[in-house]
Design brief:
The longest helix is centred in the middle third of the chain and has 18 residues. It is built from three helices and six strands. The chain is globular. It starts with a strand and ends with a strand. It is α/β, with parallel strands linked by helices. It has a single domain, classed as Transcription Regulator spoIIAA (2-Layer Sandwich), CATH 3.30.750.24.
Length: 124
Amino acid sequence: MDAAESYVNDQLKIDLIENEETYTVRFLGKSFLRDPNQFVLPILSKALEDTIAGAKRMVIDFRDLAYMNSSTLTPVIKILERARVGTGEITVAYKKSLKWQDISFSALIIFQTPDHRIEIAGMD
């Protein structure tokens, strides 16, 4: 059975969905946050800690996000940096067919690791 929590700030909703293998952080709606570090970073940090403690893969899923400003990437980059030097396993999933998502998230490929602990995955 999946466990779920939801957080909402203005038009942005973040669902945390945990099952036996993964801890999914799903972004929905739109993010116009001026300082997403205040709202998004604590959620991603908690998810990463829980993921490492449970020996699971964290999936940060942006496929249902309609829009985000560029500052929303900042907390995601911070989490990827932490995982890269630590033990976390993360997949960033985005919708490749949406031009704005492909442009924003394909740039994160620099965080991808050869051992696939960190993966940036454009999906349709």
